[in-house]
């Protein structure tokens, strides 16, 4: 029998449920539902006016319903009387094609038909900043090479350990926390899992980090490049594909311990990298992280070309050890569901077409990249990424045309709004033309 949320509420002392969904821009929307009403909501979903959030729906559309997935339940560690639930969006008795969690389910189901399941771990970097967002919160955090700065990490002990304790209590197998490569930047790691579990946790992690930071008088941001000159916030993704209990990327006889299937998957990522940027680097600001000039610390840690390598962090794809690869492309703004859906869709296409990823490049791309003349470059801005995304028949088929057109429409509107700004730079450089 399915999990009975009303029963769980009385057993665990949950007074309210947040029935939550993530829209196309990654914003989390919710209704706060008293436990007394959860049985009906579990069956029928919580009603929303779809047009009011970023889903490309119309005010004339009927009510949409967020149907909670009981398996996703998380009792808020900082407010245990509230239970958070990830939901799928339904309208007119059907799942809404452009709802991000529905999109990921669609691709996960496609993989399952082939007997495959993707597992993924994400490294969500974030900054702790002041309330008005103008500067990092710790004025003493000024080292030129701040990565792993012990003192700066310990000055944030209270907030970092509250988040880490929460992850431990939730059974996420949290295993390390550090100060990252930019002043004010941190990363916290928990164990990898199936794509949908990781996506739900990734969504919740962002909510939790922001909420707990706020409790401590701080503000957390996952903005890809909040401060020019400092390393941006990535969302490096560690990917493997499994057949049952067997890691299908692992092969003792394969190059670097990766199977032919693994290389085909990487081939799909390489082939569709420019289109994937629309999902993995979804904001105007994202393109100030990838393609960035060298930062204060000496490296951007972000790719600018579509290349892969062994255990070397200067490429888009790194194979750090047998059986998995790290995709270093995504940033903190990526929608957790679309991140997983995009990677899996591109990889499955690589498997289907047996795409050859080309030769591995064992060079330092930051210093020797200019010597490589035939490597594809990443899009330089959101508009180029959107155009590649829209024209990708592979992603249209795998993610659904309803999703691709809705997403591209809203993102084009965002780009157009940005492009309509007259900047100080333009005036300075064009007044005397
Ligand atoms: Mg990192």
Provide the CATH topology of the largest domain.
Creatine Kinase, Chain A, domain 2
CATH class categorisation of the largest domain: Alpha Beta
Query: What is the name of the CATH architecture of the largest domain?
Result: 2-Layer Sandwich
Q: Give the count of helical stretches.
A: 14
Strand content: 15-25%
Runs in which pLDDT lies below 50 for 5 or more consecutive residues are none
Computed Rg = 22 Å
Structural category: alpha+beta
Number of domains: 2
The end-to-end distance, rounded to whole angstroms, is: 72 Å
Query: Helix coverage percent of residues?
Result: 25-40%
Mind summarizing the main beta sheet?
10 strands, mixed
Hetero ligands: magnesium ion
Number of beta-strand segments: 17
CATH homology group of the largest domain: Glutamine synthetase/guanido kinase, catalytic domain
Mean pLDDT: 96
Principal-axes geometry comes out as globular
Description:
This protein folds into two domains: 12-92, Ubiquitin-like (UB roll), CATH 3.10.20; 106-424, 2-Layer Sandwich (Creatine Kinase, Chain A, domain 2). The protein is 35% helix and 20% strand. The protein has helices at 5-12, 38-44, 100-113, 150-155, 157-169, 195-215, 260-271, 273-280, 336-353, 365-368, 382-390, 393-399, 401-419, 424-430, and strands at residues 16-22, 28-34, 46-48, 64-68, 74-75, 82-91, 94-95, 117-129, 176-179, 185-189, 193-194, 219-221, 235-243, 246-247, 308-309, 317-321, 324-327. The strands form two sheets. Strands 8, 9, 10, 11, 12, 13, 14, 15, 16 and 17 form a ten-stranded mixed β-sheet that branches. The radius of gyration is 22 Å and the shape is globular. β16 (317-321) and β17 form a beta hairpin. The protein is of the alpha+beta class. It is built from 14 helices and 17 strands. The mean pLDDT is 96. Bound molecules: magnesium ion.
């Amino acid at each position: 029998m399915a999990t009975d949320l009303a029963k769980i509420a009385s057993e665990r002392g949950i007074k309210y449920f947040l029935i939550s969904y993530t829209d196309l821009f990654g914003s989390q929307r919710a209704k706060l539902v008293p436990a007394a009403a959860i049985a009906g909501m579990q069956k029928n979903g919580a009603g929303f006016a779809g047009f009011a959030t970023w889903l490309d729906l119309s005010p004339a559309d009927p009510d949409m319903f967020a149907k909670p997935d009981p398996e996703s339940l998380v009792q808020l560690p900082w407010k245990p009387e509230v239970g958070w639930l990830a939901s799928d969006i339904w309208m007119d008795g059907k799942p809404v094609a452009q709802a991000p969690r529905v999109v990921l389910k669609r691709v996960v189901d496609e993989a399952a038909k082939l007997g495959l399941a993707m597992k993924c771990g994400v490294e969500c970097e974030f900054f702790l900043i002041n309330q008005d967002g103008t500067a990092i919160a710790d004025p003493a955090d000024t080292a030129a090479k701040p990565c792993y700065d012990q003192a700066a990490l310990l000055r944030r002990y209270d907030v970092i350990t509250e988040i880490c304790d929460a992850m431990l209590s939730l059974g996420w197998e949290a295993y390390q926390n550090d100060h990252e490569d930019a002043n004010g930047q941190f990363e916290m790691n928990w164990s990898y899992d199936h794509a949908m579990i990781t996506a739900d946790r990734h969504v919740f992690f962002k909510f939790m980090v922001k909420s707990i930071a706020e409790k401590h008088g701080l503000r957390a941001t996952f903005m890809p490049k909040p401060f020019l000159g400092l390393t941006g916030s990535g969302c490096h993704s560690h990917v493997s594909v499994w057949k049952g209990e067997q890691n299908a990327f692992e092969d003792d006889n394969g190059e670097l311990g990766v199977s032919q299937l693994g290389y085909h998957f990487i081939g799909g990522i390489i082939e569709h990298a420019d289109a994937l940027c629309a999902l993995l680097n979804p904001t105007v600001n994202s393109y100030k992280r990838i393609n960035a000039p060298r930062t204060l610390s000496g490296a951007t840690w972000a790719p600018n070309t579509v290349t892969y390598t062994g255990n070397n962090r200067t490429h888009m794809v790194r194979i750090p050890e047998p059986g998995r690869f790290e995709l270093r492309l995504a940033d903190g703004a990526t929608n957790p569901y679309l991140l997983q859906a995009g990677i899996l869709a591109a990889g499955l296409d690589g498997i289907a077409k047996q795409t050859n990823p080309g030769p591995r490049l064992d060079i330092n791309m930051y210093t020797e990249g200019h010597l490589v003349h035939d490597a594809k470059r990443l899009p330089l801005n959101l508009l180029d990424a959107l155009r590649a995304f829209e024209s990708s028949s592979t992603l249209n088929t795998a993610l659904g045309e309803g999703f691709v057109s809705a997403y591209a429409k809203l993102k084009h509107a965002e780009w157009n709004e940005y492009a309509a700004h007259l900047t100080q730079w333009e005036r300075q450089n064009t007044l005397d033309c």
